[in-house]
Amino acid sequence: MKKLLLSTFVLAALSISSCSKDDSSDPVAVTCNDGIQNGDETGVDCGGSCEPCAVEGQKDGIINSQDDPDLDASDLKGNVTADVRLTNDTVWILSGPLSVKEGATLSIDAGTTIKAVAGGTNVYVVIEQGAKINAVGTADAPIRFTSNAANPRSGDWGGIIIIGKAPLSGGGTATTEVVDLTYGGTVENDNSGVMKYVEASYTGARINGDKEFNGITFYGVGNETVIENLAVFYCDDDAYEWFGGTVNVKNLIAVNIKDDMFDWTQGWTGTAKNLYGLRESHFTAITEDPRGLEGDGNLDGNSPGDTGQSNPTIDGLVLINGSIIEMADMIKVRRGSGLTLTNAYVAFANEDAKASDFIDLQDGKGNANGSLVNISIVGNSSTGLDISDVKSTENAVIEVTDGTTPTVSRDLFNWTAYDFE
Prior knowledge:
Helices cover 4% and strands 38% of the residues. It is mainly beta. The protein has 2 domains: 21-58, no CATH class; 62-416. The strands form 3 sheets. It has a 25-stranded parallel beta sheet that branches. A hairpin with a 6-residue loop joins strand 13 and strand 14 (182-183). The termini are far apart. Keywords: Signal. This is Multidrug transporter. Residues 288-312 are annotated as: Disordered. Residues 1-20 form the signal peptide.
């Protein structure tokens, strides 16, 4: 018995010592149960599984305090599990996924610049369900996300994803398109934080033809979230996309977007005020069907019987195509979506610009919900836009007038320092 007891104490002591930092300068390699060989800086088998053993001062991919070594301005990535702040006294280099977990808040000082390594789909920021972002820039000191590449281009990095618990069409929850996280629920007034005066450039990395990041994506975001004064420049997919939710937005600009400027699906029922979308004359990126507005009632038109389909209200919209690349539609609403649109203006910027359709409410997988469509819009025929090119659907109300005065002031976006053509 004494011999057995002694062996137990010896084994226990060895187990404890193997899970602490070794006194020597060189890590001791230990083979875990799964066959992986780990040194003491990454952890060893501590009872049936190979769990990481924390070592003070070393990175472990988890940011759990402001002093955590993973909160590294030169190499920013990891899982944020506590309230942390990105300060404006340095340029932060986003080198991988930065995932803010439930219960944590990521704060970003006004005037902060975050440069993303051109790593494609593995570089992005996501605010998960139950987490918050507190990114409050100002007109004089906006927050800027951009590419760190010497010659930046659209698709250099993923973008910004906000995930909430607000309702989706058909109810329940779903899994995000690009990072496999849960979104949606029943909390209409869910609060994912604040974003004001934030710019995101060179976003939209593509996984494949069906899955891609947008500039800024709202997944089931609730109406207690504050979204105002955002800008997306040079995105390889959509500038902004709403997957369900009730979030309200204000003063959004999208410039030189390869696919859709403003896109919604799966039951978005929020409001938008002052949306401005523009393609410049030199922007010649090609995609299958770029649009100014694209609105679906249910996800991909695959659930036409869903309750609670998209029905946003937009007050103030400008869409201008100056590119020689033809846009599919300036406004496309389909697949059960409604839309109340007022103070809208659509134009071409030069005689070479064109679009297949001005307004189209028809689609092979379901037309717009005409009883919920009420559009009042100014089309500028002097720019070559065919304002009679309207494909309507039953019960829809569409009032088109000819005019030359945009309905959203460019001055709202002076904070971006963008030089309008």
